[in-house]
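Quick one, T. Sequence first:
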Amino acid sequence: MGLKFLDIKKLDLENKVENEYFTKILDTSDEWIKTRTGISSRYFTKMSVAEMAVELAKKLDFDRENIKLVLVASFTSERILPSLAGFINEKLNLNKDCLSADINMACTGFVGAMVLAERFLRDGECALLIAAEKISSVLDFNDRTTAVLFGDGCAGAVVQKNNKLWVSDEKTYGNENALAMEKGNFVEMQGKEVYRFAVDKVPRSIEALFEKLKIEKKDIDYIFAHQANKRILEQVSQKLSLGMDKFKVNVNEYGNTSAASVPILLSENKECLKDGDKLIFSAFGAGLSICSVLMEW
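Structure tokens:
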């Protein structure tokens, strides 16, 4: 059991927004944002979520006949019907013998898609996993507690079922208000509650992976965690007694891109990975949910 990444790419978006943009419209400063979040910039786009997802899918290299699953993770899609995954299937003329579905786990979405793909696929079969978020379309730019945190993003991967090392941990704790958005409204977040949840539950989820496999922490090569806030990553690192050198980080440039966070991070660091590396993926989001995976590259 396990997954092999055959290809992983991100979409380069056109509009980089530095912290100074927010200092002109909100009671905030570049120093305030950096100190509390580690974020210096993020990207906003004029593209729709569907346009991003299709463009990204076209960039990926894969054998159409071997794609048995298409999963798209997003909470910001403009589309209600058809699914983004079904839209991609049509636009790329994929194999019709293929399950195509969207999932909405917010920031947990891509790692959740990895878990679903690993359990669904048979040996040698492939899946197309895409995360696409246009969070700028659901932000209240008068609310500094959310406006400065998020960015748009899109990335995806082609994965194949294999028999390498793999173990996962999935948890849903439930909380309808900590991170929420109703149709037609802006995203709302209780920042302190989400922060406390992340620094408590994410280390526990990762520890559960070690316990299941009886692997020592020193054997882990890299950790690809959801890029929500640099302070959260530092707290998780401290609680796990793992140095920050194990954690790949790009929240400073992209902000929180929700489901797109982990695949963007992976796409930017794939060149440093070698066959046999032991990796941890972990993401947390609305729900409140966590998915963590320990796998061999």
